[in-house]
Design brief:
The complex is a heterodimer of chains A (323) and B (506).
Chain A lengths: L1 H11 L1 H20 L6 H26 L7 H16 L2 H5 L1 H28 L5 H19 L5 E2 L3 H8 L1 E2 L2 E2 H19 L1 H11 L1 H6 L4 H27 L1 E2 L8 H11 L11 H20 L4 H20 L4
Antiparallel strand pairs in A: 1-4, 2-3
Helix pairs in contact in A: 2-14, 2-15, 3-9, 3-12, 3-13, 3-14, 4-6, 4-7, 4-12, 6-7, 6-12, 8-12, 9-10, 10-12, 13-14, 13-15, 14-15
Chain B lengths: L4 E10 L2 E11 L4 E6 L5 H8 L7 E6 L2 E2 L5 H6 L2 E4 L11 H6 L13 H13 L16 H14 L4 E5 L7 H16 L3 E5 L3 H7 L2 E6 L2 E7 L5 H9 L3 H7 L14 E9 L5 E8 L3 E5 L6 H8 L7 E6 L8 H6 L2 E4 L3 H4 L7 H5 L8 E2 L2 E2 L1 H14 L16 H13 L5 E5 L7 H16 L3 E5 L3 H7 L2 E6 L2 E7 L5 H16 L1
Parallel strand pairs in B: 3-8, 3-9, 6-7, 7-8, 13-19, 13-20, 15-18, 18-19
Antiparallel strand pairs in B: 1-2, 1-4, 4-5, 9-10, 11-12, 11-14, 16-17, 20-21
The chains are: A mainly alpha (323), B alpha/beta (506).
The structure holds adenosine-5'-triphosphate and magnesium ion.
Chain lengths: 323, 506
């Protein structure tokens, strides 16, 4: 009985319903129109490109679930993406390849985590509006990355590092598996862990959460830290895919893609819900829209308009619930 | 006489669960009509169908004999139906004036909002209710009672033919209710019909002409109030035999029979920015201490201060362990709980399930390897749903879908599940039906007998007088006297409040 009720509820959820429908429409459209859509190559390209959006979107989902937003994800990607080659191209890494490689992954992610702490502290303890708080790194993070690299494009050949972006496991891109792994972990966190419960409570009703003894500040900082850490990781993947690092371009406009993916996936902007797999679904839709337009020779700028349209539709569906 | 509003054969279900089936309601022009029924009987749902918040699945709604088609609350308002919903739908961050005139702002010649006129009109409307507040301040900065009065004032000012009040008196004290009643009588005399939903049967006999009884989504009967007895109404509401109910009795609490133990918490000369100006009291093991006082006397503020929510500028709160109480988390860790008066703003997490809402305050204790121990959680939740008879389609149902009284029970369960040492209850039975109130009060009594200490705030004098072992009377932020049970009467309490009031005014 209660199981059928639960299923009914799922079925009545227009935000999810809508996203799946949109995915079906896009796939159908591509099958009919886009040349060579049904090829393994297409799948690989899309998986490797959707991975970064999906990873950041999952982090964004957690932040939005607290009722916040993180505009700094793209800049943090640039920062970590700029740091990595600096480290493994250094003399130190030349002398200790393994250590150098490890450091080139650990250090950028660590720096990203620190950015997350900064964002979180501003938002929670200092009570700064999330948009304003994360605007600080949105503006300065990329600048910092460019200063670190003197604005140069860093190119490299480092097969071990490039594995992050070009490796294959069981025939599928490595970062696809990484997305799956992160999603499973975060899904567990959101649905099973104490932290996840607290996160949703803070987003659902912050005053009530505080009155129930939930450490609201710590929970919010946690969300921003996870989001920043995942952004850092995504920055590394972008660099690995390209075997080059351009601080001006890594993660450019990623904040918009991530927010769009989260919202399309059913995250409520008011907070209180964190559909992790929804975020991946959203990322896939965003990616496919981009790909579809590109493959059919339509300008990038049009893709932006299409994305805006998707966000409007998703928000409209969220609001349109009426019993 | 033709009915002003006539609803027949109304059916409504939510995601397959039936809330109303074949419900009906007929309101005559210029009458005060009550709806009563247990929590979850469908009262709020029925009026939300009338006002266009929900769409009905079946049935017919007529106004003055003609079919009435409203699909939004705004259309209902324009059709002459003004509503005060059970869960206040005001905007706490906006000024009192904005809340009162919202949607009907007076305009200047240039089409801009005429704020001077708006403030003046708001003041005038509120004055009818004896409310004198700064109308330019945020509504949220005032107490729930004031907010409720503002909602009522707004509805009454809309020049409606029907005013619907869904549990509008739940946080008002006797005096405010008296004021409300005189306004209701005025409305009736000028031909406006009033639909009045309440769990206080006494109020029915004071102002209602007819009463409709609902049970399990159906209309059971409509009577002329003067021809009914309280016992008869209760038995129809519960669907049980009158003799059975009489045997069980209807009031559970009787204070003053326990033997209180050591002092667990002591508040000494508290002063705060929130309006405390010298409040002292203590709470002992195995006793219920009531806080009595008028609106604005600082009862809720005192509770917030002891729970570590508001900072005190002078005086101190001493917990028997010696630990400081400066955050709710700390208070909870020390075994305290605080059921707040505003369940929408401070209580429920709307998207979360009944299960998650009940265990919210005790998450650290359900921890098993970083995760929530789901088995133990389910067991606990099932126990409280059963003990408090929470009407829900299952523990996974989102709490926002529960009826008001059932949400209140969930919040009470949240704090009882914590098995606290000291429990602060601010209006614990607000919106709860007569039967459930009895259950809740006896559960609390039983826990007190087992050692629980309770700080009780209630605008319902009866609950306070009969429930508390001691009542500390507050007046403008100061504790002025203390009454001891057994022996407190409602008269004595009112006297104590009024007496000191006069003296301090003089
Ligand atoms: N939006 C909703 N979704 C699902 N179920 C709902 C919804 N609103 C109400 N219900 C269900 O309909 C039933 C009737 O609820 P309603 O709020 O009308 O009760 P009520 O008589 O007003 O109770 P109370 O005295 O507690 O306010 C309840 O069982 C409730 O759970
Ligand atoms: Mg109700």
């Amino acid at each position: 009985m209660s199981a059928t009720v639960a299923i009914m509820r799922e079925r009545f959820d227009p935000s999810r319903h809508g996203a799946l429908l949109a995915l079906a429409v896009i796939l159908l459209f591509n099958l009919l129109v886009t040349p060579n859509f049904l090829q393994a190559q297409t799948l690989f390209v899309n998986i490797s490109q959707v991975a970064t959006i999906a990873i950041v979107a999952m982090g964004m989902t957690l932040v939005i679930a607290t009722g916040g937003i993180d505009l700094s994800v793209g800049a943090i990607m640039a920062l970590s993406g700029a740091l990595a080659p600096l480290i493994f191209l250094s003399d130190f890494a030349a002398a200790n390849p393994t250590l150098g490689l490890t450091a080139s992954i650990v250090v950028p992610v660590f720096v990203a985590l620190c950015c997350g702490i900064f964002n979180g502290v501003l938002v929670s303890f200092l009570n700064v509006q999330p948009i304003v708080a994360t605007l600080i790194f949105f503006i300065s993070g990329r600048g910092l990355a460019q200063v670190l690299t003197n604005g140069n494009l860093q190119t490299f050949t480092n097969p071990s590092f490039s594995y992050l972006g070009t490796g294959r496991v069981l025939g599928l891109p490595f970062q696809g598996w990484l997305v799956l792994l992160i999603a499973l972990i975060l899904y567990w966190v959101v649905t099973r862990s104490i932290f996840g419960r607290q996160l949703l409570a803070v987003g659902g009703n912050e005053r009530a959460a505080r009155l129930s003894g939930i450490p609201v500040h710590r929970v919010k900082i946690g969300a921003y830290v996870i989001c920043a850490g995942l952004s850092g990781l995504a920055g590394l993947i972008v660099v690995a895919i390209n075997s080059a690092s351009d601080a001006a371009r890594i993660g450019n406009l990623m904040e918009l893609d991530a927010i769009a993916a989260a919202v399309v996936g059913g995250t409520l902007l008011q907070g209180g819900r964190a559909p992790i797999f929804g975020a991946i679904l959203g990322a896939v839709i965003i990616q496919l829209v981009k790909y579809t337009l590109l493959a059919n020779g339509i300008a990038d700028e049009v893709a932006l308009i299409a994305k805006a349209g998707i966000i409007i539709a998703a928000v409209y569906l969220q609001q349109a619930r009426k019993e | 006489m033709t009915d002003f509003i006539q609803m027949t054969g109304i059916g409504k279900s939510f995601a397959g669960i039936i809330a109303l089936k074949d419900a009906s309601l007929a309101i005559r022009p210029g009458e005060v009509h009550a709806i009563i029924g247990q929590n979850g009987a469908g009262k709020s749902t029925l009026i939300k169908i009338l006002t266009g918040v929900y769409r009905r699945d079946a049935g017919d709604v007529r106004k003055d004999g003609k079919p009435l088609a409203v699909s939004t609350p705004r259309e209902a308002q324009d059709a002459g139906i003004a509503t005060i919903y059970q869960e206040l739908s005001l905007v706490p961050l906006r000024s009192v004036t904005e809340n009162v005139v919202m949607g009907y702002e007076p305009r200047t010649r240039f089409g801009l909002i005429d704020w001077k006129a708006a403030h003046a009109r708001t003041r005038e409307i509120l004055a009818r209710f004896g409310v004198d507040v700064d109308v330019t301040r945020q509504l949220g900065s005032y107490s729930t009672a004031i907010q409720q009065l503002v909602a009522i004032a707004r509805a009454v000012s809309l020049d409606a033919k029907l005013v619907i009040m869904d549990e509008a008196t739940s946080s008002l004290d006797d005096q405010e209710i008296e004021t409300l009643f005189s306004v209701v009588r005025n409305l009736r005399d000028s031909g406006v019909a009033v639909l009045y939903i309440s769990h206080f049967l006494d109020e029915l006999y004071q102002i209602c002409d007819r009463v409709t009884i609902m049970r399990d989504g159906q209309t059971v009967a409509t009577h002329v109030v003067a021809e009914t007895t309280k016992l008869g109404l209760v038995s129809e509401m519960l669907g049980r035999d009158a003799s059975e109910i009489q045997a069980a009795g209807l009031t559970a609490l009787s204070g003053g029979h326990g033997n209180p133990g050591e002092v667990l918490l002591e508040a000494e000369g508290l002063r705060s920015k929130t309006g405390l100006r010298g409040t002292s009291f203590n709470i002992r093991k195995r006793e219920i201490v009531g806080l009595g006082g008028l609106l604005g006397s600082g009862r809720t503020e005192a509770a917030r201060a002891v729970f570590g929510l508001d900072a005190v500028s002078e005086g101190r709160v001493r917990h028997h362990s010696g630990a400081a109480l400066d955050t709710p988390a700390q208070a909870i860790a020390l075994g305290m709980g605080f059921l707040t008066e505003d369940r929408k703003a401070d209580g429920i997490i709307p998207h979360m399930s009944v299960r998650e809402n009940i265990t919210l305050a005790m998450l650290p204790r359900l921890k098993r390897m970083g995760a929530v121990d789901r088995e133990r959680e389910r067991e606990l939740v099932a126990h409280y749903i059963d003990a408090l008879q929470i009407k829900t389609s299952g523990m996974e149902q989102p709490i926002r879908e529960l009826s008001g009284g059932n949400q209140q029970k969930v919040l009470l369960a949240r704090w009882l599940a914590l098995e606290p040492e000291i429990l602060i209850l601010d209006e614990p039975t607000r919106g709860v039906d007569v039967g459930a109130k009895f259950e809740i009060q006896s559960i609390i009594r039983k826990q007190v007998a087992d050692g629980l200490a309770v700080l009780l705030i209630s605008s319902e004098f009866e609950e306070l007088v009969e429930g508390a072992d001691r009542i500390v009377v507050l007046q403008e932020g100061r504790s002025v006297s203390e009454l001891q049970n057994p022996g407190i009467t409602e008269g004595a309490l009112i006297n104590a409040i009024a007496h000191h009031h006069e003296r301090s005014v003089a």
